[in-house]
Amino acid sequence: MSTDTRPPKIKRGASVELTLEKFADRGKSLARVDGYVVFVPRGVPGDRVRVGIRKRKRSYAEGVIEEVLTPSPLRTDPRCTYFGTCGGCKWQHVQYDAQLEAKRQSVAEAFAHAGGFEASTSGAVGINVLPTIGMETADGAAPFFYRNKMEFSFSARRWLTDWEIATGEQFDTSFALGLHAPGRFDAVLDLDACYLQSEWSSRLVNATRAFAKEHGWKPWAIRDHEGFLRHLVVRTPGNTDERMVVLTTNGHDAERMEAFAGMLRADFPETTTFVNAVNTGKAQVAFGEVYHTIFGPGVVHDTIGGYRFEIAPNAFFQTNTRQAERLYAVAADFADLTPDDLVYDLYSGAGTISIYLAEKVKHVVGVELIEAAVENAKANAKANEVKNVTFAQGDMRDLFAPAFIEAHGRPDVLIVDPPRAGLHPKVVEQLGKLRPERFVYVSCNPQSQARDLALLKDIYRVEQVQPVDLFPHTHHVEAVAKLQLR
Ligand code: SAH
Hints:
alpha/beta, nine-stranded mixed β-sheet, 11 helices, 24% helix, disordered N terminus, binds S-adenosyl-L-homocysteine
């Protein structure tokens, strides 16, 4: 009989049987063997799996599923055949309710680990993290087709899925239009369907690929920095029937663009505007140095809360219109707005939150770094006849200082919605000095949100946190924190 009670030896290359405990970093699952942590992608908590260990570190290991021995009851069949290879939807195999609960847990854990807070999903102790506000679907099915913007990439290096390889067929791997394989900046999956945007956009992807091949237009080769076609960006606003197609190319070729416009007019007459973005740089971005409007107004419109917003090809706009509206409603609710309030909307983008709130308060001041976004915000306010808003352009780090407060007045309410990195320490410092009565922190990264709020612990108490799901089938979550001045 063995008396060996040491933890099982988890070595690189070994196969081990594990029960997955919960979701962890970047949508992976986690198992523990006598306290030693193993991260496993594509698993679901509750799964009994055989895992091949691929990486072994002092404090954790990483493995891949070789076989699901007993599937978790939280599993569901992924809808998409590219699931598992495509970087787009890592949680398509998880039931939607379980996705929402996992997001709630991940927010609570971010507050506990990155913020050192006591946080719970029961409300019993510490910060109350509310149930995630999910997308509603008519029949309770998982929500698909929710994105109003998709950015597809062209590549001279096609990445094949396991099942494509298994067919034994010879594929032409010199042309792809689709989405990147995870961690492969240079290789792209050639998608013939994607359930994130619309059937229309899938059809457009396929027609664009066929058109480009037929005309001999070369896709971008990222290592050699050559080729013509770089990105296909499709915008399908949530609340209007307008549709924008943007083709990002290496150089402007008027004749080619006219030919492509002809295809759109004939086969995709719903397209309201077609824009050619020119990117001759090395950076693999869909943004252009120059934009040529080939037909239509060069912009599309969407609405949030009854307000109409103009969206330029390069403008930031929340990609899930319906859920953005719910996100803003939570922010407004947490701010307890009154008609006399002066509100600061910091990191205001195209002014959507400012305009959405304006009718409930006396005045809103928006601050945004990108000049074009500030111009959009001003134009949006004007077009919606919202007069009690002011937009200032600048880096929050420098702008958010006593002189700015003096010029615009002491805010009663502060709403911040920073990028993933969160607030700059100088912004946190200034916030601690300013101490507005009400403070709402909207974040797309609960880790940096919790870190920032930990620095303000002595000044603000985190009353509650509301996760909102804008990105079904991914591990991403938006979290709105309501702060109370101590
Ligand atoms: N609230 C808006 C936009 C949020 S995205 C909406 O819901 O649509 C975050 C915004 O912060 C972006 O528009 C980005 O340009 C801006 N931003 C990033 N760094 C900034 C900085 N240092 N100072 C001011 N704005 C910044």
